[in-house]
Write a structure and sequence with these properties.
Blueprint lengths: L1 H12 L4 H19 L6 H28 L12 H27 L7 H8 L1
């Protein structure tokens, strides 16, 4: 959903700086949609959602600052002019988000999960 909007803007405006911003935003949107489908939120769920959102903000802002500092993203040289090549990049980005968020969305689907030793170890890491 997020990627569809941003790829349309990117192609129509011929800019590629939106890709990094949308990457972090997509993580946040997916985890928040997953959370909204839950009947109740446990402490475990709130911690997990918060950690994903903080990480999404970190990765999105890091990538955006990097591309803004360089002025352009070399990965898109010769790609932006070809819709299907650009679309392939966005599709791969969406698949990456889905794969990386799979453990978190599966963890959210388990009811009444408590903060145990494994959860605390993950928070510390």
């Amino acid at each position: 959903m997020v990627d569809t909007v941003v790829v349309s803007l990117g192609v129509s405006l011929a800019i590629n700086k939106l890709t990094d911003l949308s990457y972090g935003l997509t993580f946040m949107v997916v985890i928040l949609i997953s959370a909204s489908r839950m009947s109740t939120l446990s402490t475990y769920s709130i911690v997990l959602i918060s950690m994903v959102c903080v990480w999404a903000l970190r990765i999105g802002s890091f990538l955006l600052v990097r591309v803004m500092g360089k002025g352009k993203d070399d990965r898109f040289d010769g790609v932006l002019e070809h819709f299907w090549k650009f679309e392939k990049f966005w599709f791969e980005q969406a698949v990456t988000v889905w794969i990386l968020l799979l453990p978190a969305t599966l963890a959210l689907s388990r009811p009444n999960k408590n903060l145990g030793l494994t959860a605390f170890m993950g928070i510390v890491l």
